[in-house]
Design brief:
With about 350 residues, this protein is mainly alpha-helical. Helices cover about 40% and strands about 5% of the residues.
């Protein structure tokens, strides 16, 4: 009897198990659709985001202007852009590394010319802030290891990272009380872009003479203008904008002039530069070098004032503004230097 009961239990379990393995029946009729959910907000059009910068009035216009700039030409990249000691200003990669780390650690194998990304932080936020300058911090002067700090503001601080003297004037570079200075090579000088020093009115050899030197930082152009105000005004007649060529229209906002020689400053500066150069030639400090097609110093040891005179001459020449950056300072430098040289003849 007990065995029969167990058999019935097992039989019923098997029937239930087999019934559960039967394939499902046909799908029933489809029910009605439920109510639609609320629409989400449309995403931003990808093309619109790009066109905030990549349009004829923004980046394309700037690229057109930049095509005629010296920075774009990259004339010094081939020989200087890869050297660790020069790359911070002569290649895009070097400038970016210097801004990030304060130095260029080693030579750069494939340097490229200054470009948009050199000066601007690009494609990080993917908004208009991608136009942000890589740095706007005040800049220490190289000639005194950063003791003197310049803060021109309005984006111009970025420029003076490179557009400043690299070598101090002879007296400053010598031991106290030195009366002579040795020029060791034909490329001696403050370097090829001492604009910030002229602009700020400091760093050149301030030889005593008949003209009083203006107080450093007192130039009207430093107070009321800047690198960007004069060189990046609205693009007109192939000047200003991202050509970085000085804008006559910017000058005319303050001066009634039809050219850059306002008040005869450039003419007077050029006359004095020629006079000073000829004095240096007559004293054997400067000579014409055919190989470089340029007037350069004759290596040798000179009385301090003559070495200083050469420094002032080549520095003002390579400022390339013919006095416009700081008329009073340049006039004082040239007038006093010429007078001092004449006194030594």
């Amino acid at each position: 009897m007990k065995t029969k009961f167990i058999f019935h239990i097992l039989l019923m379990t098997a029937i239930v198990f087999l019934a559960s393995c039967v394939k499902e029946g046909p799908i029933g009729l489809t029910g009605e659709d439920g109510l639609d959910g609320q629409d989400g907000q449309d995403g931003q059009d990808g093309n619109v985001t790009c066109l905030a910068c990549h349009s004829g009035t923004t980046i394309s216009a700037r690229q057109f202007q930049y095509a005629s700039s010296i920075h774009k030409a990259g004339t010094n990249v081939a020989y200087a852009g890869g050297r660790a000691g020069c790359a911070q200003c002569h290649s895009s990669e070097g400038f970016i590394e210097f801004q990030a780390n304060g130095l260029v650690a080693s030579d750069i194998s494939m340097p490229s010319a200054i470009n948009c990304e050199t000066c601007h932080i690009i494609h990080t936020a993917f908004t208009y802030t991608d136009f942000a300058l890589r740095s706007e911090e005040p800049v220490g002067l190289i000639i005194d290891q950063g003791v003197t700090v310049l803060d021109i503001g309005d984006g111009s601080n970025l420029c003076i990272n490179c557009h400043q003297a690299r070598t101090a004037e002879p007296q400053t570079a010598s031991v106290a009380g030195a009366t002579t200075f040795r020029i060791t090579n034909t490329h001696y000088g403050p370097h090829h872009g001492p604009q910030a020093n002229i602009f700020a009115g400091q760093g050149f050899a301030e030889i005593t003479g008949p003209v009083t030197y203006p107080v450093a930082g007192s130039s009207k152009h430093l107070e009321q203008a800047s690198c960007t105000v004069c060189h990046m005004d609205d693009y007109i007649d192939k000047q200003g904008g991202h050509t970085f060529k000085p804008s006559l229209a910017a000058c005319q906002e303050c001066h009634a002039t039809e050219n850059f020689d306002y008040g005869g400053v450039q003419f007077d500066t050029e006359e004095k530069l020629t006079e000073l150069r000829d004095l240096l030639i007559s004293l054997g400090v400067v000579a014409w070098y055919e190989v470089d097609q340029a007037y350069e110093p004759v290596p040798g040891t000179y009385p301090m004032v003559r070495a200083q005179a050469y420094y002032n001459w080549i520095g003002i020449e390579e400022d390339r503004s013919l006095g416009v950056h700081n008329p009073q300072y340049v006039n004082a430098l040239l007038t006093n230097t010429i007078a001092a040289l004449k006194a030594t003849k």
